[in-house]
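notes to self, project folder thing:

trying the whole complex as one job this time. last attempt i did each chain seperately and stitching them together was a nightmare. three parts in total, labels are on each line so i dont mix them up again. if this works i'll redo the older ones the same way
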Amino acid sequence: MAAGPSPPTEAASARADIVRVQGISKVYEGGIQALDGIDLAFPEGKLTSLLGPSGCGKTTLLKIIAGLLEASAGDVFVHGSKVSTPGPERAFVFQDFALIPWSTVLRNVAFGLELRGVGKNERNDVARKYIAEVGLSGFEDRYPHELSGGMRQRVGLARALAVNADVLLMDEPFSAVDEQTRRKFQEDLIALLDNEKKTVIFVTHSIEEAVYVSNQVVLLSRRPGRVARVIRTDIRSVGTPDEIRRDKRYLDTVEEIWQMLRQYLT
Amino acid sequence: MAESQSPEGSGSPPPSLPPATGQDVPGGTDPGATRGFWGNWFWRLVSMAVVFGAWEIGGRIPISIAFPTFSDTLFALGSMIADGSMGKAYLSTLQPLVIGVVISALLGVGLGVCMGLWRGVEWFGAPVFIVMQAAPMAALIPLVTFVYGIGLTAKVLAVCLLALPVIVLNSYKAVRNSNPSLIQMCRSFQGSRLQEIVKVIVPDASPVIFAGLRLGIAAGFIGVVLAELLITPTGIGDLITYHRAVAEYAEMYATIFSIIVFSAVTVGFLETVEVRFFRPERKGR
Amino acid sequence: MKLFGRRIPMMFSLVFWCVVWEIVGRTQDILLVPPFTHVLVACEELLRTPKFLDAVVITLKAFGAGMALAIAIGIPLGVLMGRVEAANRLLGMWVNVFVSAPLTALVPILMILFGLGQATIIVTVFLFAVWIIVLDTYAGVRHVSPSLLEMGRSFGATRWQLYTRLLVWAALPEILAGVRLGLIRGVKGMVIGQLLVAIVGLGELFELYSRNFLMEEFWALTILLFGFALGLAELIGLVERRVEFYAGTRS
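result (full assembly):
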C-alpha cells in the first residue's frame, strides 16, 4: 500500500477506506456534464449505495471507479494507489447481466479466471463453488437464455465473486429482476456478503433497496451529479428481514431520503 | 426484422454510415423461421402441389409453345440426370462457383472483421463496399471478360464480384455492432484486446458473419449463372443456351429448375447449419 | 478517421480512391484504367449524346414499370401473408426460395416467353425486386403489436380502417426497408436483364463500349449507373429515417 504515489497520511486513511474518489468530474462529448467534483470514501467491508434521481450519473461514477470509463478530472484510489483501468481487486456486476449467450453457466462464471489464464480444472472448481454459493447448483450446464432474470444475475454475481476481488461494483443489479425475486435476492446477497467480507459499491434507484442492503447511502444530486449527503444506515443489526421492513428506523430513513430526493423530481 | 437483425439494431450504429445501403439480410425475415425452414412437410407438399399443378395446366393449354408441362420438364430432368449430361454440367459449373466463394469467404470475412475492429481500415474500406453492395456489379462482367478472356479466371472473378460485397459488409457490421456490454464485461475482468477479439467479439459476430456467407453463396450462384450465360456457355449455362437454340424447351426448363432447386437446397442447408452449430444455445428454439 | 483533429466523414474516402484511380490512370499505361478525370469528361459527353439519353429513357421506363408492379403486388402479398396463416404457409416457402435463388437463370425463359424487348426487362426487374418486398412487408406486419389492433377494434374501427389506418402505417418502416432493398435488387435485375438481352437500352451501350474498348465511356456509364442506384437507395433511406423517427417509440 505504501508503494502508492499518495502521501503517507492518505495511505493511513486508505486502510479503513479501501476505495476513495477525489474530485471526480465527467463531461461527456457534446458538453453534457454528468458528474461534478465527487469526493467519496468507501469503508472496507461495508456496502455503500449510490442513490439519486435518474440521470444523476451514478452508473457513470461506478464505471469510472471500475476503470471502464475515463474521468474528465479527478482520481480514483484503490488500496491507496491510483487506478485508471480495470484491476484484479475490483469486479463488476452488470445491470444487463452481460452473460455470454453461447457459453454455459459454468463457463460464464469461470470467464474471469479463463481470461487470467487459470487452468481449466482449477477454474471450473472455483466456478462450481461459487455457483453453489449463489444457489445455482445443478444449473452448471445450462445456457443463460434458459434461466430467469434473477438466476441470470446470480450467475453474474458468481462470476464477480469467482475472481476473488476485494471490491464488488454492482450496477443496478436487481433492476431487471421482478419484485418478489428481488427481495429474496437482496436477502441472499446480504447473507453472502457477511460470509465473503467484501466491500460493495451498489448503484440503485430504489430507496427501499438502498436503505435495506447498505451500511451507508450516498445521495447524489440531479445532473451534474454532486454528493448531496451521506447517510449511515446500518439497518441490518435490527434483526430478520421481516423485522427490518417493519422497523421504525428503517421506515423513517426511507421517508427522510424520499423527502430529500423529491425536490429533484419537479 | 426479428432475431438475427438485432445486432444491427441494438449497438450504436457507425456514425457516418448511411443506413440506406446493404442491410440485405433476407434470412432475418424468414417467414418460415418460426417453424424451421424445412419444417411442416404437409404444407410444403400442398404448396408444391398447387404450384406444380398450375405449371402442368399452363403447359397443357399451352400458354406458349415455349412452355413445357411440369411432367415433361421432370421427365427431361430425369433423362438428363440418367445420361450424365447434368452431372457433367454441374461439375463444370461448381468449379468457378466453389473457387469464387472460397476466395470471397476468406478475403471477405478477413476484410470485414478488420474493418469492424479498426477505424482506419473502416474509413478506407467501408464506403467502397457499401457502394459495391448497392450498385449493379454485374455491369462490370463485360469488363472482366475483356481483361481475363473467357476462361475460368473470368468466371471466378464474376462470382467474387457479386459475392464479396455482402460477405464483407455483414462481417464488418457484425463486428462493429458486437454487444458493447459483453466487451465492457471482458474489460472489467482485465481481458486483453486479443482476448476481447477472440473470446467475445468474433464469437458474438459469428452468426451474422455466417449469414453473410450464406447470402454470399446465393449471390455467387447468380454470378456463376450470369457468367456462364454471358461469357462463354459452359456447364449449366451451356445446357440452357444449347437446349434453347435447338428448341428443346423441356430440357432447358429442367436445367433452370435444377439450378434453382440446387441453390435453394444449398442455402436452406446452410441455414440449418447456422442454427445448429453456430449457436448451441439456440438449438431447439 | 480524424485528420488535424477534425472528423472526416467516412464517405470522403471515396474521394481518396478516386485520386488513387487518377494517379494510376496517369502513371500506368493500362488501357483498362483511364484517368478518372477523363472518365468524368466522358460522363459529361455521354449525358449529351442522344443515343445515351434514348437508352436512359427506355431503361427508366422498364425499371419504373417493373418496380411499380413489384410494389403493387409485393406489399399486398406481404400483408396477406402476415395476416392469413394459410397464405403464409402456401407462399412462404416460394418467397424464401426465390428471394435467394439465382434468378439470372430464369432470364433465358423470359426471353423466349416475352421476346427480346422491354417486356422481358420489366418482368426481370419485377422478379428481382418483388420477393424481398413481400418478405419485409410480411415481417413488418408480423411485428405490429397486437394491442395496437385491439385498440383499433375497441374504438370501433372497421376492417378496412384497421388495415389502412393502423396496420400498414405501423409496418411502414419494414415496408420501406423492403422497397429500398427491392429497388437495389431491381437495378441489379435490370442490368442483368439488359446485359443478357443485349439489344435494349444501357445493355446495348455496355456491349458496344466493351466490344470496342471504349474504356472511358464504359466507366462513365458504370459510374452514372452506380450513382443512380446509390441515389435511389439514399432517397428511400431518407424517407425511411423520417418514418423511423416516429416509429422509434414502437416497442
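what i see at first glance: The first helix of chain C runs from residue 13 to 27.
need to look closer tmrw
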